């Protein structure tokens, strides 16, 4: 099985927006995600390590303008955080 690591070179290759979202707990504006309306089959991977995270077959429209995925490929590879910062309870996945 391939080992997935986050190298300094991969982090340096991120766009400022990718770094803000992945490295500084940022959030993209609703409706702006690159693959929001992409319905092609595939796997979503960690932008730094390449680790497979979600299958596109588990994507659904939550109505919030953000990509929503029902379950990870490997639950142990993600962290769930409760977020109440905007006056509502949300589950953030990292």
Q: Main attributes?
A:
globular; two-stranded antiparallel sheet; 6 strands; 20% strand; alpha+beta; 94 residues; 2 helices; Metal Binding Protein, Guanine Nucleotide Exchange Factor, Chain A; two-stranded antiparallel ribbon
The CATH class name reads: Mainly Beta
How confident overall, as mean pLDDT?
A: 84
How far apart the termini lie comes to: 22 Å
* Share in β-strands: 15-25%
Q: Which radius of gyration do the C-alpha atoms yield?
A: 14 Å
Strand order of the largest sheet: 1-2
Total count of strands: 6
Give the CA-based shape.
globular
Which blocks of ≥5 consecutive residues have pLDDT under 50? none
Pairing-aware structural class of the strands and helices? alpha+beta
By DSSP (H or I, 4+ residues per run), the number of helices equals 2
């Amino acid at each position: 099985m391939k080992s997935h690591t986050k190298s300094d070179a991969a982090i340096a290759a991120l766009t400022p927006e990718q770094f803000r979202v992945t490295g500084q707990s940022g959030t993209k504006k609703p409706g702006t995600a690159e693959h929001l309306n992409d319905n092609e089959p595939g796997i979503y991977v960690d932008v730094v390590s390449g680790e497979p995270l979600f299958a596109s077959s588990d994507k659904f429209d939550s109505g919030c303008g953000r990509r929503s995925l029902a379950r990870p490929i490997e639950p142990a590879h993600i962290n769930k955080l409760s977020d109440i910062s905007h006056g509502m309870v949300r589950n953030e996945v990292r």
